[in-house]
Amino acid sequence: MKQAQMSQSAGLFRLPRLLRTVRPKISAKDVVHGLMVLPALVFYIPLFVVPILLGLAVSFGDWSGVAGALDMEWIGAENYVELAGDRKFWSSLGITLRYAAMVVPSQLLIGLLLAATINSGKGMLSAGVKVAILTPIAMSAVAIGILATFLFSPQIGIPALISNEPVDLFAEPNGALLGVSIAHVWGGIGFTTFIFLAGLQAIPEELYEAAKIDGAGLMARFRRVTIPLLRETTIVNLILIFIGAFRSFGLIYTMTRGGPYRATEVLSFFMYKQAFVSFRMSYGSAIAVILFLIIATITLFKIRLTRAGTTRYY
User: Fold this and answer.
1) I need a surface site. Which of 78, 116, 286, 312 has the fewest CB within 10 A?
2) Residue 172 contacts by C-beta under 8 Å, 6 or more apart in sequence?
3) CA 236, CA 117: separation in Å to the nearest integer?
4) What domains sit in the chain, N to C, each tagged with a CATH number?
5) If we measure between CA atoms, which residue out of 238, 245, 210 comes closest to residue 303?
6) In 188-243, where do the E strands start and end?
């Protein structure tokens, strides 16, 4: 009994020493790094984290967005239950998926071809491609939408130049979605291209020389060397383009306003209409939460894929 008490007291005396051993050591460099991050957190928390939390809270209430927020009635998960049975919500989600299916492969493939052209350094061709893809990077989504509206106009745009009886692309549901998709790809192609270009320039030239010595032609080198070593870059571009397609709003608002016949009413535009047109802010917040969860899931999928394998050149 006495021995048990002595061992217990010895353990208590040993506990502070154990805690000191487990406690992580914070170096001066860690403190400096923390102080450097602090200014960003001062802006990030109130401008990003707090609105997300407030939007989540509002989604569990019944608030028009016009009346005082303190008068909001808490209704639990009723907005989410309504969403589950809302045909317009599922229709908008389907349109968003179709829109993403048109945008993602097109932007990915065109960006890769443009990056390969620039990387090859073909004089004027390379310079012309750079100018063409740098232009939309400096433009907002609204400016791109207005320009695309003029380009596809049956009176003064490309249809009027190539046909005596021009067709209004935005008068037909499938045509309208195609037109917006083309504008989206053109607006985002520059960023995609430069990410691919960075990946291409990181591939050691020795690998191409070794493949050439083995008798591999241009296409074989592209297929057997370039594509596999661009795996991580391709995943990053794929996820960024997919997220951009799901978040697309400015082009839809400028070019079609969701029409014709709701053919271009993607999820972000449906959220806008519910919150700011129908004055159902809580319902719109519930849609925003669902959209956030979809984008977060895509982002986590991207992180998992990039961690699954790392390209090594040795």
Assistant:
1) 312
2) 260
3) 20
4) 2-58 (no CATH), 78-308 (1.10.3720.10)
5) 238
6) none
* pLDDT tens column, 62-100: 998 887 777 788 999 999 999 999 999 999 999 999 999
The H or E element spanning position 4 is helix 2-22
Give CA angle at 212 (197, 225), nearest 5°: 40
Residues 156 and 150 sit within 8 Å (Cβ to Cβ): yes
- Alpha-carbon distance of 273 to 266, in angstroms, equals 11
CB 241 within 8 Å of CB 152: no
The structure tokens 């073909």 sit at 122
Residues 6+ apart with CB under 8 A from 199: 115, 229, 230, 232, 233, 234
**Does residue 117 contact residue 189 with C-beta atoms inside 8 Å?**
no
Residue type, 42: V
Quote the pTM value: 0.82
CA distance 268 to 288: 8
Reported as a single tens digit per residue, the pLDDT across 245-275 is 999 999 999 999 998 989 999 999 999 999 9
CA distance 276 to 270: 10
Residue 61 β-bridge partners: 74
The owner of tokens 């989540």 is: 56
